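#struct-help
A.M.: can someone run this one for me? Single chain, 105 residues.
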Amino acid sequence: MVGRGGCHPGARWRLSLWGNGQSSYWLTTANDPAVGKFGQYAVFNAEVAFRPLDKLELALTGKNLFDRRYEYVWYDTSVLGSSASPTQHSPAEGLGVTASARVRF
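D.P.: on it. Structure tokens below:
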């Protein structure tokens, strides 16, 4: 049975759940405890989409649903001997929610 707009009723909704993460890592090849380990994280994401018409899909996506704070860290040997820290930190994105509409031609 085909629903209103030419879609099968079961195909009108889509729910996607996914996650990504990594274990911690040493910043130097010597695995120096004075420098430490960084990088362990796990984040979870979800998307719900609705197709009211065959050629139109509306979606709401949430990334990093638990607003996990983590960062990418690397060791920069070019600053050794200066007052700057050799560990460089780049924070990851926090919770993000987006809405989208996709039209197929």
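A.M.: thanks! DSSP finds no helices and eight strands in the chain.
D.P.: also worth noting: The two ends are 24 Å apart (CA to CA).
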